[in-house]
Amino acid sequence: MTEFVEGELLDELFSNCAAYIMPSDSEGMSITLLEAMSYGCPCLVSDIPENTEVVEDYALTFKKSNVDDLKEKLEYLLNIGFNKYTPQEISAFILKKYNWEDVVNKHLELYKSDTGGNSL
């Protein structure tokens, strides 16, 4: 619930948050979700495919639009914690899955194959 934040303040928020909550019914692959996971934050996301495909089993999920399920999972997360993975494991998972260098290389391969083998 902040205004636009960047730099050191953003780093402080992510590195000290108890949990990152993504209750969206429709937002696809949120950059803030990727950032939170890169910091190893425990995450709670709605069970829409756009979220579950990103987090796999490295975050807790709740039923989309179900306030009672969200409340139950949030209480669980805050009282018991997400013990399935350490912050380091969450961070390593997301950084490997969405590695910027790999994305760039895949795009370059696609462009090269799309131009009939001509290099860029």
How is this structure best described in words?
By secondary structure, the chain is mainly alpha-helical. The protein contains six helices and three strands; from the N terminus they run αβαβαβααα. The protein has a three-stranded parallel beta sheet with strand order 1-2-3, sandwiched between helices. β2 (43-46), α3 (49-55) and β3 (60-62) form a beta-alpha-beta unit. The termini are far apart.
Provide a brief overview of the structure.
With 120 residues, the chain is mainly α. The chain has helices at residues 7-16, 31-38, 49-55, 67-79, 87-97, 100-114, and strands at 20-22, 43-46, 60-62.
Q: Can you write the helix and strand succession as a string? A: HEHEHEHHH
CATH topology: Rossmann fold
Count of discrete domains:
1
Question: What is the level 1 CATH name?
Answer: Alpha Beta
Task: Please outline the major beta sheet.
Answer: 3 strands, parallel
Mean pLDDT: 90
| Total strands | 3
Summarize the amount of helix as a percent range: 40-55%
**Rg from alpha-carbon coordinates:** 17 Å
